[in-house]
């Protein structure tokens, strides 16, 4: 017994006092632990786990803080929205920091603390989910579910053909929705996915869709799809303005690389185009630029019907032409029907060209060109 | 995306770096395409239109225009002829070439007897397209290494590749095999007219390639795609 104690002491363990829980009076028990046992494997435990109690407490504190803030700003605590909070914080704690994420902010705890999975195993160490040891339990269980739905749909189809009933085939609205992106799916499953996993899942969903009896599984599919509004609805077209002579006109602004252009398009014109006070024949001697300026008019068959006055600065010859073209197309939207605006958008006239000069990188001569390779 | 199988998952992740998001579609500047009414469109085109209504579209490049004078083949050829980014010079050379072609054809037209006048083609765009078509090889060679040795295997070419080869041969031919004093438009117009009549060095080059492919027929089974 003394030998055993001596050996334990030499192994470098520590005696620590532990108070037992329960109604018993305060008695301490000495418990022996070795440093090997006490040393935590930080890497294996993963990121810090937030318990439910902790999150609840944070939410209570947030709500209380919100009411205090409303009182401080002299507003009604009941109708104090998140935007009001942001404004109040920006007023009380002004910060000149560049990064918006680094500035003081007060948001609901569910936005601040990322959603985490609860512990996946019970007290005995046995995991709850049968696919736990695959490593990606949510993903594989999702695949299993989806395949089950596929088999159901096929069985239903077989039943219909056995009864000689025609399979229901309704063409769905193809372009109105999109699948969840990989990031959204990861958020839903609370698990990391690889690109291959994601693409396999989407392929399975699409296979389910293409089956004739896939309509019964619509509810399930809707969980993984999102509505996409038509692109046209996002832009607001301004109404026409009238100047002193009673002629309708409309303005537009356009950019291309470093060039900035503003354009005023007048109705009842003869097709005269002036740039910075100079006629286009003199300002743009190159045919390609003039063709670009006339592109929107030619597309809408309104070549001799409008006058245009433009101001442009910055960029080079081609960039200025591109900027004026965009500004002109934007201005013409007010003169034209919605369908024609959609046609202009599909012709690429209303998109801002995002291509700019690529930066030069260190260790290279230009953006892509490397220095001459010398063997020695 | 609820998209037709042809567009399925073709680019979820970007391979080549581009300023545009992969979901952006190519613009279509052809006016006639938009003047077609809804009933005239085929099934595929209807699906494409529906998809285009929801997806963003890239900006039209400066070379693209809806005017009758802009031709995609001519723009491609001009870009290939361009050196050091001098688009102005390349375009003027192209314009001079087409003018030279027209002049030569008009000369022939006025000198020809009445019955032959109808057969002479005066439209330089038609001549250009036909000449390019005549220069396109049907089959090409690809080097495949098998068992240490490299074989030249006959391989069917894609449309893009055929067009590219035809244009490349034209341009290299005009740059190399000419007199010091002859200018590019003159030489190009000469080559184009020769190719239009299925004669000249470029057509010969195409025939040589076809013969090589025929000679290496034995290795055709090395191709696995």
UniProtKB/TrEMBL annotation, chain A:
GO terms for molecular function: RNA binding; structural constituent of ribosome. PROSITE patterns: RIBOSOMAL_S9. One of its GO terms (cellular component) is mitochondrial small ribosomal subunit. Keywords: Mitochondrion, Ribonucleoprotein, Ribosomal protein, Transit peptide. InterPro entries: Ribosomal_Su5_D2-typ_SF, Ribosomal_uS9, Ribosomal_uS9_CS, Ribsml_uS5_D2-typ_fold_subgr. It comes from the Eukaryota. SUPFAM superfamilies: Ribosomal protein S5 domain 2-like (SSF54211). GO terms for biological process: translation. Residues 355-376 are annotated as: Disordered. It is found in: Mitochondrion. Its main location: mitochondrion. Belongs to the universal ribosomal protein uS9 family. This is Small ribosomal subunit protein uS9m. It comes from Lophotis ruficrista. The gene is Mrps9.
Automatic annotation (TrEMBL), chain B:
Residues 60-217 form the Small ribosomal subunit protein uS7 domain. Its main location: mitochondrion. One of its GO terms (biological process) is translation. SUPFAM superfamilies: Ribosomal protein S7. CDD domains: uS7_Mitochondria_Mammalian. GO terms for cellular component: mitochondrial inner membrane; mitochondrial small ribosomal subunit. It is found in: Mitochondrion. InterPro entries: Ribosomal_uS7 (IPR000235), Ribosomal_uS7_dom (IPR023798), Ribosomal_uS7_dom_sf (IPR036823). It holds the Pfam family Ribosomal_S7. Keywords: Mitochondrion, Ribonucleoprotein, Ribosomal protein, Transit peptide. Belongs to the universal ribosomal protein uS7 family. PANTHER family: RIBOSOMAL PROTEIN S7. This is Small ribosomal subunit protein uS7m. It comes from Lophotis ruficrista. The lineage of its organism: Eukaryota, Metazoa, Chordata, Craniata, Vertebrata. The gene is Mrps7.
